[in-house]
Amino acid sequence: MKTIRNVKINIILTALTTVILSACSHSKEADIAGTYVATYRNEYTIGNDTLEIVPYHNQIYQVIRRTGYQKIRDGKILPKEFKQVKWTATYVQDKQVLQETEFGKQLYMKPGKSLLFGDDEYKRLK
After folding, report:
1. Same structural domain for residues 23 and 49?
2. Which residue from 10, 42, 96, 122 lies 20 to 30 Å from 72 (Cα-Cα)?
3. What's this model's pTM, rounded to 2 decimal places?
4. Angle 98-101-103 from CA coordinates, rounded to 5°
């Protein structure tokens, strides 16, 4: 009787452990997902970038980059222009980097806070 009871307890504990570990690994994956923003200004351009990182499957994410910018020519600010680009990237957790292989884009993550794309730092909104 005790043996059957012990087997049932072990099965329940194994199931609970599996559920808890699955929930933890999912939260690590979702930790980098979100919206990140950066603004910039130089003598030629004023602009802002939004990077939206969306989980796709396992450690694969879709990155949507939306850019709005105004060119400055002869001291005059021209009308705002917009651009949107999408790509797919793989998250390498031990390096904390999202890597896109076709063009070599890399986003260096600071999970929950910000990311670096080239020399630009993007702050996380949500």
Report:
1. no
2. 122
3. 0.73
4. 105
* Domain count across the chain: 2
Q: What is the tens place of the pLDDT at every residue in 27-78? A: 455 489 999 999 999 999 999 999 999 999 999 999 999 999 999 999 999 9
Structural domain including 16 reads: 1-30
DSSP code per residue over the chain = -HHHHHHHHHHHHHHHHHHHHHHHHHHHHHTT-EEEEEEEE-SSEEEEEEEEEEEEETTEEEEEEEEEEEEEETTEEPPPEEEEEEEEEEEETTTTEEE-TTT--EEEEETTTEEEETTEEEEE--
Contact between 89 and 60 under an 8 Å Cβ cutoff? The reply is yes
